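Researcher: Going back to the complex we discussed earlier. I've cleaned up the inputs and rechecked each line, so this should be the final set. Can you rerun the prediction on the complete assembly and write out the structure?
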Amino acid sequence: QKEVEQNSGPLSVPEGAIASLNCTYSDRGSQSFFWYRQYSGKSPELIMSIYSNGDKEDGRFTAQLNKASQYVSLLIRDSQPSDSATYLCAVRSGYSTLTFGKGTMLLVSP
Amino acid sequence: SQTIHQWPATLVQPVGSPLSLECTVEGTSNPNLYWYRQAAGRGLQLLFYSVGIGQISSEVPQNLSASRPQDRQFILSSKKLLLSDSGFYLCAWNTGGFWNTEAFFGQGTRLTVV
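Model: Rerun complete. Updated structure for the full complex:
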């Protein structure tokens, strides 16, 4: 059984701070990792994908992957109230389907 | 560019009634198609996925079924809805192949069974 674990939160940060969201996964053969953002009542939208160990930056977002520790994280710099949402971590191994974590709720206070 | 359409956006159905949710993808060929359900306060649960016309894989046993009558059309059905079928139903697609690819979601259908 492939599992993806996330702290459900809520993670509360003040506006302008760095938000750090974490995810661990059980399948050591996982190769593709994704972060989705889901606003309340809306469908998930893709933020970042990462496939290699290290950091990948896109604007205010940085995804970090450590396959040895089976750990992937998402950093959001200069957090804004509009970043308040649930962040879903998703993992794929080869031909398999995506396995999602239950998500971490982020609250950014003005 | 590729787009995914899912309808209806909201649905209220009585227990025991049938269900049909439809999803279509534009701008791509032979996509992988997925049906997920998200119950209140819970994660995304994969219900069905399809890698081609007529090819359906079920992830969980339940009173739901799926069909793929055309390459870019995916339908979720039930003959008799249960209260436990309430939830947020999401259709998603991605391109086939071994590496990656990201899945993109439709706007979702909020189903309430009463």
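Model: Worth noting: The radius of gyration of chain A is 13 Å.
Researcher: Good, that matches what I expected from the previous run.
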